[in-house]
Target: Heme A synthase
Amino acid sequence: MKRFAYLVCFGMFFVVLNGAVVTKTGSGEGCGTDWPLCNGEFIPAYTIESMIEYSHRLVSGIEGLLVIAIFVWVIRQLKKKDAVFYASLTLIFTVIQALMGALAVMYVQVPAIMALHFGFSIIAFASSFLLSLAIRRYANDPEATEVVGGTPVNDTFRYGVWFTLLYTYIVIYVGAFVRHTDSGGGCLGWPLCNGEIIPELTGGTLIAFLHRVAAALLVLVVAAMSHFAYHSHKDNREIQLCGIWALILTVMQVLSGALVVFTVTNKNWFLFTGLLHTVLICLLFSVLCHLSIRVWQLRTKRQ
Model:
């Protein structure tokens, strides 16, 4: 079960990356408006766009079957509340993102809805990540309890972690909105936008600039949370490490965003840097989700 959970988590990670490739290469219409068929065929005629889109559907379909399998396995055999919760979340958001993907193919969707599609994909991955951690813990220690022990955390830090997670998701959504509105070229250069501290705030420039401001504020928010995670929880190494990794991944995320800007005119490098940007945000959001669960568990333990 542990190895299968790892497979599900890796598969979900690949689905998110594959979806990013579809968006970055503009292959969303590679199969026309047909679903689940591609241009009316089970195996479509070869074009780059149709193969990219069709491979995303194929990978997502296989991953959907794996998610159903791990959900049934956890429900019937493991029966641990936290594992069941994570498996349920993974299944729910896998279904939601699949339905949204199908609707995006058959009907024209506004960028605001498509940005939600990416956001739900991130939640599905984070849920599969948490599920794999939970199953790993039970596999290594069959007698493990559902709530992991540790030193209780105070309310202020707990709410701070939850705020950080929520704000990170908002930044992710804004970033996805930039991508789906093709506003990435609205701010050329970095860290200045079009050579100005505050550019003319219209069209794609406004959207891209708002994302930059939100990302800059995210660094400050995560830095503050990480400071308290490290200095106020010296007796809880797990909390400290989560704070450290959150800060490292946030800084790397911002730098990868700069690389996206610098490579916007180079198609091959732009795809690579865009995928790197996606990888880092997946990892950051998953770490923050894990930390949010841990501070909740420690609160439950104290009460």
In short: The radius of gyration is 20 Å.
